[in-house]
Prior knowledge:
The protein has a 7-stranded mixed β-sheet. The chain has about 160 residues and is of the alpha+beta class. The chain is globular, with a radius of gyration of 15 Å. It is built from 4 helices and 7 strands; from the N terminus they run βααβββαβαββ.
Amino acid sequence: MLIQALLPAHYPAVQDIYEQGIATGHATFETKSPRWEDWDQAHLAQGRLVATDESGQLVSWAALTPVSGRCVYAGVAEVSVYVRQEARGKGVGKKLLEALIRESEKENIWTLQAGIFPENTASLKLHEQSGFRKIGYRERIGKMNNIWRDTVLLERRSTQVGL
């Protein structure tokens, strides 16, 4: 597996993987993937990664979103990790998340957070294995298909930056 920077040329494959996640009903509140321009604007320029398999197929992506525009939160970002359906359960997400953590620390990000649906047990396990801890449970935080959904809030504090 090769991990590299996510480039605009990767976006069609990123978008496909994102839509696979949307289809599960347990990956995001989003109902459709955005255009590249909107996705690009919403995510931090740093900490955008993709993983490709031995054949060169893009199998996973990860990116960071700012949690706030206030300068005091410049070192806090929300994590997104998505894995192509046929690559799930093979350790791809873990390797990519660990690479994203290293990249975030190079960029002086001291706190990573994730909001995950409680039904997405694979994602919860992945984040906990990578040093995230559960810090809260957000009941009825948003509606999806007119049904209230909960999320588990996880956080990872860096041991390298922001001390």
